[in-house]
Amino acid sequence: MTVAAVAPLAQTLAAGLTAFGLTLSDAQQQSLLAYVELLAKWNKTYSLTAIREPERMVPHHLLDSLAPLQHFKAGDNARILDVGSGFGTPGIPLAIARPDWQLVLLDSNHKKTTFLRQAIVDLKLANVTVVTERVEAYRPEAPFNVITSRAFSDLAEFVKLTRHLLADDGEWAALKGVYPHEEIALLPADLKVTGVDTLNVPGIDAERHLVHVVRG
């Protein structure tokens, strides 16, 4: 993209970060915009996302992924699993914002993980691993502090498929649209919802929530 094309995207990103109270370096912000440029380029051939305009990708993919960042119950050097990562949200924006976290982006779609592998090379993300596998078959060397997803499945199915991957003191942090009253009600009795954060994402006129679930 030309400098003239990038400037308004940079302004939208910076305004969103300010709204979240997030401080990212110029290099991190440039890396986020490079991710949007790469996604827009690949999307022309591989149809990774229905959103094709970079100016819409910034709020819908970057800011929507970064909105829950400060609500995650994850300390320094945490292990984070992004289930059904697709084209890398929220995993890649989170990895750029928190280089100390180790992220695994898991998806069974080879086309999407091919893009993810190219993205982490181009963006030089040393803290990201891409895995092409079904989640129920995935057996990592160590469990995760946080397991997250963006529109992967309903809460009960999400938890069912990933129980074996969560550390004993870890949490599921599921990104949802409207408040998922029915999904919460259908969670198994041995699980506990510790909170539901309402996320306000600049540029998106829709509800967003982050649901925190732990073992009871």
Automatic annotation (TrEMBL):
Gene3D superfamilies: Vaccinia Virus protein VP39. GO terms for molecular function: rRNA (guanine-N7-)-methyltransferase activity. The keyword rRNA processing applies. Pfam families: GidB. One of its GO terms (cellular component) is cytosol. It catalyses: guanosine(527) in 16S rRNA + S-adenosyl-L-methionine = N(7)-methylguanosine(527) in 16S rRNA + S-adenosyl-L-homocysteine. InterPro entries: rRNA_ssu_MeTfrase_G, SAM-dependent_MTases_sf. S-adenosyl-L-methionine binds at G84, V135, E136, R150. Its main location: cytoplasm. It is an enzyme of class 2 (transferase). Transmembrane segments: none annotated. It comes from the Bacteria. Keywords: Cytoplasm, Methyltransferase, rRNA processing, S-adenosyl-L-methionine, Transferase. It is found in: Cytoplasm. Its EC number is 2.1.1.170. Belongs to the methyltransferase superfamily. RNA methyltransferase RsmG family. Specifically methylates the N7 position of guanine in position 527 of 16S rRNA. This is Ribosomal RNA small subunit methyltransferase G. The lineage of its organism: Bacteria, Pseudomonadati, Pseudomonadota, Betaproteobacteria, Neisseriales.
